[in-house]
Structure formats: structure tokens, C-alpha cells
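Students often ask why inverse folding is considered easier than folding. One informal answer: many sequences map to the same fold, so there is more than one right answer. In these notes we will look at a single instance of the problem. The structure comes first.
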């Protein structure tokens, strides 16, 4: 841990603040607070290969939590059966495929999700997407995707409560595996907007 800093009393394991004595007196002279510099700390377990993205991914999204998402998505999928079409359960492999396509869509942005499966010559070809999963299957999983148990009523639940227990795990893992440096900028815009 950097010197001359202490854990914030409201968040002792995460947030650090300067450990300086308060200034005595008042006046019309202003001197900015001297904040000691300290670098970020990446605190991965020794057993994790820093060059292996899947090993790092598994710290934030452990197998048990992904299995829980599979279970909850299958529960919701069964409840959404329409036109006599039976829900086909997903497994962990298919969840990874769904997420990979979702991440791909975040990098290669199209105006409509159907464009990722388009075979039109005047449009970009997303071969990796349409060879990995059919469009209908991806959309059915997308409608059914559920992190928390869909059988528990959520009328008054906050957004964060709807993604428990994964939300708490990611929060704790983030605090455990990475301590930010003194200078940190946070972009609070989590959703795209125009205007």
C-alpha cells in the first residue's frame, strides 16, 4: 500500500485518501492540498497468468456464477415459450457463444442486430457471428438472458438488485484485484445517449 494514505472510513478496503494532519487557522491565502502520488496496484493472485485473458475473466465471472446465469436463463426461456415452440436449454458453451457475439456487437457496431447475420453484398459480412450461432437462436437467448432468478418477483428491485449476486461478486473482485492510482477519472455515462 502507498505511504501517507489510509483507507476511507466509509470504504476501508477500497478507497484511499491522504493521511495528512488538518491545517490550523483560516485566512485569505489558499494552498491546494498536497496529495501524495501513488501508482495503481494490480493485485492478481500468483496462480493467475497475467497474459491469459480467460484466467483474468474467471476472477470476475467464476464458473459457478456463469452456471447460475445458464440456470436462470433456462428458467426464463421456458416461461417465454411462444407459438408452441419449446425452449431448448442453453449450456455453458452456448452462453459463452452468446456473450462473445454480444461483445463483438459492442466492437463492430451496426444499427440493427439483424445486420450481423446479413448476407447482402453491400453490407459488412460478420462471418464469425453467423457461423457461431443462428440469428433466431441468439435473439431467443437474448430475450431470455437472466442473471438473477426470474421466478422471484422484482417489482420494487433496483437495477443492481436485478443482477445480484453477480453484481456484488464483481464489485468485491474489482476492489480486491485492482487499486487505482491517485489520479483517476470516472466516466459515469454507462448508457449511450444523444441530445
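Output (designed amino acids):
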Amino acid at each position: 500500500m502507498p505511504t501517507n494514505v489510509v483507507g476511507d472510513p466509509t470504504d476501508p478496503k477500497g478507497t484511499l485518501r491522504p493521511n495528512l494532519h488538518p491545517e490550523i487557522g483560516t485566512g485569505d491565502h489558499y494552498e491546494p492540498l498536497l496529495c501524495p502520488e501513488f501508482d495503481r496496484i494490480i493485485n492478481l493472485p500468483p496462480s493467475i497468468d497475467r497474459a491469459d485473458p480467460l484466467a483474468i475473466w474467471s476472477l470476475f465471472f467464476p464458473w459457478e456464477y456463469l452456471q447460475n446465469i445458464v440456470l436462470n436463463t433456462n428458467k426464463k426461456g421456458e416461461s417465454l415459450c411462444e407459438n408452441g415452440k419449446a425452449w431448448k436449454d442453453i449450456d455453458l458453451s452456448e452462453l459463452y457463444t452468446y456473450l462473445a457475439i454480444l461483445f463483438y456487437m459492442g466492437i463492430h457496431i451496426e444499427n440493427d442486430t439483424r445486420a450481423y447475420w446479413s448476407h447482402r453484398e453491400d453490407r459488412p459480412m460478420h462471418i464469425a457471428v453467423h457461423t457461431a450461432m443462428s440469428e433466431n437462436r441468439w435473439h431467443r437467448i437474448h430475450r431470455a438472458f437472466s442473471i438473477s432468478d426470474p421466478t422471484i418477483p422484482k417489482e420494487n428491485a433496483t437495477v443492481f438488485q436485478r443482477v445480484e449476486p453477480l453484481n456484488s461478486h464483481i464489485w468485491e473482485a474489482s476492489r480486491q484485484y485492482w487499486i487505482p492510482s491517485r489520479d483517476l477519472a470516472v466516466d459515469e455515462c454507462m448508457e449511450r445517449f444523444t441530445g
